[in-house]
Amino acid sequence: MGSRSEPYEAPAIRAFASELTAWRSAAGLNKTEFAEALGYTPQWISQVEAAKSIPSKEFAENLDTFFKTNGVFVRQWERIIDTRHQAILPPGFAEYLELETEASQLRGFDLTLVRGPLQTEGYMRSILSHNRDPETGAQLVSERLARREILTRKDPPSAWFTLDESVLRREVAGRDIMHEQLAHILTLGERSNIEIDVVPQRPEYYPGYIGSFILLSFPKAPDVAYTEAAGQEMLIQDPGAVARFAVLYNSVRGHALPLGESRALIESIMEGYR
């Protein structure tokens, strides 16, 4: 986990950043003076204090030695490690997850991967464990499994999911896992609260190419949207912007096959994974 353009939202990383700023300021040092004293660059100090970089254990030890803190920064670093799975969540996603549990309706479009609530454990494990240590991957899988229960709980939300055909054909896991994943989608599609349709592959442009997104509706609160497009992920609450996503979803769904034909296409692709 390194530097990035936007601050991490994980509380432990933010706490470390705040603590560092407070100790440096109390010592009467600016970032350049402090960096020179410890042997780091001012840019690195700025990144850590802005919660845009995750400190190493060595850096935490050096801070404790410099400030004579009796282990304050190492304990902060340990807290980061204990909760490191939170650090990789994109901006706004933690808040989105809370809202998702309260929604009465979900409308989602996926261009690249099967959406989280639709995933089997094998599929999500293949994705979430990629380039991550086993413990972090296991923690993320556990959390996503709990998220999946939203669709099958008592009094579940109504949900409409539209998938680009490429999502079904993209072999991101072993063939057995892909077969299981598509079978799971078909099973979910049999539930009275869920409709799943597919936009067939086509040579011409259609609005879904802008990227994946989901809309949440609530009984007594405004709709929100969460988008994953062009490498950017964000929670959108501005009413005008959310309304545009609602129009976009209707447009995208207009390109999808009817439910029966969508189901037949999923079955055909699933059989190809045998």
UniProtKB/TrEMBL annotation:
Highest taxon in the source lineage: Bacteria
InterPro entries from the UniProt entry: Cro/C1-type_HTH, DUF5753, Lambda_DNA-bd_dom_sf
Molecular function per GO: DNA binding
SUPFAM superfamilies assigned: lambda repressor-like DNA-binding domains
CDD domains: HTH_XRE (cd00093)
All copies of domain HTH cro/C1-type, residue ranges: 20-74
Pfam families for this protein: DUF5753 (PF19054), HTH_31 (PF13560)
TM region positions: none
Protein name: XRE family transcriptional regulator
Protein species of origin: Actinomadura rubrisoli
